[in-house]
Write a structure and sequence with these properties.
The complex is a heterodimer of chains A (about 150) and B (about 150). Helices cover about 75% and strands about 0% of the residues of chain A. Chain A has about 150 residues and is mostly helical. Chain B has two domains: about 80 residues, no CATH class; about 60 residues. In chain B, about 70% of the residues lie in helices and about 0% in strands. The chains are: A mainly alpha (about 150), B mainly alpha (about 150).
Chain lengths: ~150, ~150
């Protein structure tokens, strides 16, 4: 009874924590088996770059990793139900956001996985600065879109 | 044979990464935007996701640091640059602006595109276009040298 109360008081989002640890497990496997950083923008950007320059080196494992991400909901659905997902952004906003995310992550050499998870985990100064930067502009964008330009 | 195992571990890594994004709720842009909305009903779950992922990954990097090759005998490729330059800052600035606009970053967008969400597919196509734009811009600036 006491334990239950304590858990309620702390109010830890257990699924979020467990999901995060699962992400950590994936980066661990990728690093220790393949010797690579599980930075998704870098992996996808490498595919785009490879196709553009007709260079097939490293294309196979990049495609395999992305394939894993893409089929993850199909496999998940065999065992559990998928959570509800709400995408509120308009099509126009999605296109603008997509271009910004694609260009920005390549220019800045990483996204939430490469800088936010892998970079923070090895205390890379570059990744800490990058994470603080994209979090700040993320906060600013939401503030502007939700509270200023209503 | 080793080549096949390398591809299989890459596939499983992507799959487990996707499971983590689904279980944590990060595939839902509404939850991500609720984290980024400090002036609204703030939802801190993204911090717990990052905390859990960083804690587990830190152990992996600790082990990797002591090794020159991976368990499959491949070189360990960990970035060594410590330079904080304009590219890093501007790139992260733009990424954050896009992230806050849609609530999608590359991983969750790919997972939801795989689930058949038309909006996620649209975002992914735009993201690939942004990456292509970067390649072309970089290629032009470097005078044709591969970046």
């Amino acid at each position: 009874m006491n334990i239950e109360q304590t858990i309620t008081e702390i109010d830890i989002p257990w699924l979020a924590l467990a999901g995060g640890m699962l992400i950590g497990l994936a980066t661990t496997l990728f690093l220790l088996a393949n010797g690579r950083i599980a930075g998704i923008s870098g992996i996808v950007g490498g595919i785009v770059s490879g196709l553009l320059h007709l260079s097939w080196r490293d294309l196979d494992w990049r495609l395999a990793f992305v394939a894993g991400l893409i089929v993850s909901t199909l496999v998940w659905r065999q065992f559990f139900s998928l959570p509800d997902v709400q995408i509120q952004a308009s099509d126009m906003m999605l296109v603008v956001a997509g271009v910004l995310v694609g260009f920005g992550t390549r220019l800045g050499s990483g996204c939430t996985s490469g800088h936010g998870v892998c970079g923070m985990a090895r205390l890379s100064p570059r990744s800490i600065v990058a994470t603080l930067m994209f979090m700040s502009t993320g906060f600013a964008a939401v503030y502007l879109l939700r509270h200023v330009i209503v | 044979m080793r080549k096949l195992i390398v591809l299989l571990t890459a596939l499983i890594s992507g799959l487990v990464f996707g499971f983590g994004l689904i279980l944590s709720g990060m595939v839902n842009p509404a939850i991500v935007l609720a984290f980024l909305d400090i002036a609204g009903q703030w939802n801190p779950s993204l911090l717990w996701v990052m905390g859990g992922a960083v804690a587990v990954s830190a152990v992996a990097f600790f082990i990797a640091r002591r090794r020159s090759t991976s368990f499959l005998g491949l070189p360990v490729n960990v970035p060594t640059s410590r330079v904080i330059d304009k590219r890093l800052l501007l790139g992260s600035f733009l990424f954050g602006a896009g992230w806050g606009t849609a609530g999608f970053c590359p991983g969750p967008a790919l997972v939801m595109a795989g689930a058949g969400s038309e909006k996620a597919i649209l975002f992914v196509i735009a993201m690939l276009a942004g990456m292509l734009l970067f390649e072309i811009a970089g290629h032009a600036r470097n005078g044709g040298a591969a970046s």
